[in-house]
Amino acid sequence: LHNVTISDIKASTDSDMGCAIAGLKDHPIENLALKNINISFPGGGKEGDRTRRFDEKPGNYPECTMFTKRLPAFGLYCWHVEGLKLENVELTTREPDERTAIVLEDVSNVLIDGKRVDNPALGDWRPFKESSRGFDPRANLDLVPNAEFEVGCDKHGPIVRVNMLKIKDWTAVPGVKKAWKAHYPAASEDAEFSNLILSEVVDVDGRGTLHAFACINWDQSRIARYDDNGKCLWVSDKHLRRSGDESRLPVLDLDGDGTLEVVSVSEYTSKGGGAILCFDSETGKLKWQKDFEGEYYKNLESPMAVGHFSDRKKYDIAVRFGTVVYCMDANGKALWKYKLTDKYDYGHEMYWYDIDGDGLDEIFVNTNHKMTAFRGDGTILWQDNTQQWHSDFIGCADVDDDGRIEVMYDHEGCSHQKGPVYIADALTGNIENKIDYRAIGFPHAQGAVVGKFRTDLPGMQVFMNSKGSGICMFDYKGKLLWEKKVAGCLCASGDWDGDGVLEAMAFGLGTNREGIFSVWDGYGNRKYAISFLPSPVHTPGIAHAGPGGRIGRLHQSDITGDGKADVVMSFGKWGNSVDQYLFIMGQPEG
User: Fold this and answer.
1) pLDDT at res. 191
2) What ranges make up the beta strands (E) of 362-420?
3) Looking at residue 174, what is its pLDDT?
4) CB proximity list for 436: less than 8 A, separation 6 or greater
5) Hey, what's the torsion of the CAs at 441, 444, 445, 447, to 10 degrees?
6) CA angle, 167 as apex, 161 and 168 as ends, to 5°?
7) How many CB atoms lie within 10 A of CB 284?
8) Contact, 489 vs 465, CB < 8 A?
9) Are strands 115-117 and 100-112 parallel, antiparallel or unpaired?
10) pLDDT tens for residues 226-255?
């Protein structure tokens, strides 16, 4: 079969198999063109379908039923093709599907909307990340560089664009200090072993040897450790469901014995409740596990905080399972617990900070209907019972330079999308200022961080990201300083250039045309941006960058000793995907 054009087709199918364009190894299909194609598929495919392999069956061609099972792509599975041209091809699903839209295996000379794309082998980076409604294969293919990377320009200034289908030498990419390709043994056998979002980079020997720790944060959760050269040193055993949702991954000397531990959470165990798990950082073996039987409420998330709650030298662990907050010492011994409410309340934020300077941290917990401030011993400082929805962030700082610490949280956040952000006295809960982000048309405060981004203004400023539609900055009294239509989502702060003044960092999702990661000064000037291409999607939850580090969502510190912020970042699909990277980002030289 060669020199064939198929065009002007609009169709809908109830088959979840997908479409096969398959030749034979020694007799490939040649020069096939698909133009103006719009096909709707039912969806329903699973992650395990993506990595399925097939035997050659020459006698069964050309029927796709020879494959007997779902194809690796929900749309087009192309196998043994020389010359494939796609123009205005739209492939969608009516229900969620965990497969990609297109898979190319042994396919060469590919043109997609006039852009040449090198053949990605099955299991490597795939340009089509969307697996549900909202897929647009033309979203940013026009930006893909021909080389491994390029420094281009958009309306905000210079931007680094990386061709993920060609990149080999990450050390040459401006702004990338270190890159780890995340690979997991037998990933294809663990359909849910894939959602890399929690990460930490640690100087493991005090001499600048950086190792990365990453947690696959979903069903069948595991933790992996990578050495300085990217080699996977160990992968922990499965510890069931979700490792604390959006909590960071603490890697620290938990008990003061001079060795590092890794602390994680499982939302539920075989005993029906949640659990805290402590791993040996050298071996990945479980040191101890603390089970909480019967205290689990499905899908309420399990955030944790590791701080000095009862001991100024040793760490303690606080965690919320369902509606109960527990605190235990470095060996898992119970210290106290508190039941927040009898209601079925969702939330995923917990934060710790020494608000009175006594060397012991206070704890802040936010859920639907309630914001609670604890002393480290479990004593309630105050509660806000007036909110209906939960906040997607919590932060503490002396926001107004009055010598007292304030706490920042979204009063009517997440699903309610109403605001405002409260800036309250952290000891009393008294509201001092409000930031009404909805008044400027900002749809949703998915992330916010407070810091000194401007030296010409009194107090601190608040940098805020929506869920893929914009970023903005306010002063502490709620005055808008600037706003940009950039696809941010999570955010952090750090001294990017080492001048002693913080920069704001946006971690985006979606098409990442303006940068999946970008750095901004307090005046709204972009100082750095990078896009990983192609990643042609619009839907939130896909192609997502996230800050790492134990307190990475709030501040990125200097871990390499050059006086500048080293940004720990993971990148990949927010949900299930084997295509994941870990980075240390920093100001490019020169």
Assistant:
1) 36
2) 362-367, 370-374, 380-384, 394-397, 406-410
3) 98
4) 419, 420, 478
5) -130
6) 145
7) 18
8) yes
9) antiparallel
10) 898 888 899 887 765 555 545 578 899 998
Find the mean pLDDT for residues 561-575.
80
Q: Which two tokens stand for residue 342?
A: 């009898």
pTM as predicted: 0.77
What are 293-326's pLDDT values in tens digits? 655 455 556 788 999 999 998 999 999 887 889 9
pLDDT of residue 77: 87
Q: For residues 370 and 347, give the distance between their C-alpha atoms in angstroms, rounded to a whole number.
A: 10
- Going from the C-alpha of 79 to that of each of 34, 71, 546, the distances in angstroms are 15, 11, 34
Q: Give the whole-angstrom CA distance, residue 213 versus residue 221.
A: 13
Q: What are the Cα distances from residue 197, in Å, to 22, 127, 144, 245, 570?
A: 35, 20, 25, 9, 6
**How far apart, in whole angstroms, are the C-alpha atoms of residue 182 and residue 196?**
8
| Other CB atoms within 10 Å distance of the CB of residue 469 | 18
Three-state DSSP class for residue 562: coil
* Distance (Å) of CA 42 to CA 45, 111, 433, 573: 9, 27, 49, 21
Antiparallel, parallel or unpaired: β 261-266 and 251-252? antiparallel
3-state helix, strand, coil in the chain (%, to 5): 5, 45, 50
Query: Per residue in 140-185, pLDDT tens?
Result: 777 889 899 999 999 999 999 998 878 889 999 999 999 987 654 4
337 close to 321: Cβ distance less than 8 angstroms:
no
- pLDDT for residue 193 is more than 50: no
At residue 88, the 3 state secondary structure works out as strand
Which domains are present in the chain?
Answer: 2-118 (no CATH), 133-191+441-589 (no CATH), 239-435 (2.130.10.10)
- 532, 165 Cβ separation under 8 angstroms: no
549, 193 in Cβ contact below 8 A?
Answer: no
Q: How far apart are CA 121 and CA 143, in angstroms?
A: 21
For the chain, how many residues are written?
A: 590
Hey, what are 537's tokens?
A: 């999607």
For residue 422, the tally of other CB atoms under 10 A from its CB is 23
Q: End-to-end alpha-carbon separation of the chain, Å? A: 53
Tell me the two tokens of residue 1.
């079969």
Cα separation values, 58 from 21, 31, 104, 338, Å:
14, 20, 19, 66
Contact 436, 422 (CB under 8 A): no
- Distances from the Cα of 428 to the Cα of 123, 382, 404, 554, angstroms: 53, 6, 11, 23
Residue carrying structure tokens 């399925």: 52
Percent of the chain at pLDDT > 70 equals 80
